[in-house]
Amino acid sequence: LADQLQLGPKFYVIGVSMGSYCVWSCLQYIPHRLQGVSFVVAVVNYCWPSLPDSLTKDDFRKGLVKFGLWLLKHVPGLLYWWMTQKLFSSANAMEKNPVFFNDRDMEVLKRTPGFELLSEVCLLDAN
């Protein structure tokens, strides 16, 4: 595909969400053709040794994500229940509580037209 698109001998690949699996395959099968890769994912593994503490020291989600991953490892049926339950809407929780985003996220969201999760009023109230 890269040859047909005439991307050149080396190129960048970006994987978003589930598309990251395709990028991972590119890393496995054609690493000599890749100039660089980027993964855009919802969950960060805070145990990665290459992730500097300076990037995550103010991220309150660090403990929440670690606990969630531990819980899912030890109680796998909980994920199925959470994804199929109708009592709590995760989108509503994020919409009503912009604390899920750090300061840099908020700056980007303010400049992003059509961002659907947070209304302009919520963004203004957060600061």
Please count the beta strands (DSSP E, at least 2 residues each).
2
Quaternary structure classification: single chain
- N- to C-terminal separation? 45 Å
Query: Helix coverage percent of residues?
Result: 40-55%
The strands making up the biggest β-sheet line up spatially as 1-2
Low-confidence region ranges: none
Largest sheet: 2 strands, parallel
- Compute the average pLDDT: 75
Structural class: mainly alpha
**Element-level helix/strand string:** EHEHHHHHH
Figure out the total of helices: 7
Shape: extended
Q: How much of the sequence is in beta strands?
A: 5-15%
Radius of gyration computed on alpha carbons: 18 Å
Brief characterization of the structure:
With 127 residues, the protein is mostly helical. The protein has helices at 20-29, 53-56, 61-74, 77-84, 90-96, 103-111, 120-126; strands spanning 11-16, 34-40.
Would you mind describing this structure in some detail?
- The protein is mostly helical and 127 residues long.
- The protein has a domain of 42 residues.
- It is built from seven helices and two strands; from the N terminus they run E-H-E-H-H-H-H-H-H.
- The N and C termini lie far apart (45 Å).
- It comes from Opuntia streptacantha.
- InterPro entries: AB_hydrolase_fold (IPR029058).
